[in-house]
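During the no-cost extension, the postdoctoral fellow (Dr. R.K.) reprocessed legacy sequence entries with the updated structure-token encoder. One reprocessed record is reproduced below for audit purposes.
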Amino acid sequence: QVQLVESGGGSVQAGGSLRLSCAASGYTYSSYCMGWFRQAPGKERERVAVIDSVGITNYAGAVKGRFTISKDNAKNTLYLQMNSLKPEDTATYYCGADASRPRWCFSLSRMYNYWGQGTQVTVSS
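Re-encoded structure tokens follow.
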């Protein structure tokens, strides 16, 4: 059974940093696409960053240069380092996995078939 468990959310002031973690179990997560997505109240879930099986990454324009996605295959853990946070980054952040695709990761959240429970990130001005 695939399980994804996020941690690391919280409240910070604008300009601050947070690091999110997503611990995966139940499948060889390193072999497939994984990503971070976020959803603000009243908005659709949107891609933040995705990473494929060989470490190629892709970011949303709004976070490029501020956020970094990475993974530790030995720990089966996905990370999102978030720097220079802005109030508009406030959302629930979700870890997603597409356990059918190793490369050419989709950006659309509906293409990901496993999700964590989400972790709240709140950035105040």
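The longest strand covers residues 18-25. The mean pLDDT is 94. The remaining legacy entries will be reprocessed before the final report is submitted.
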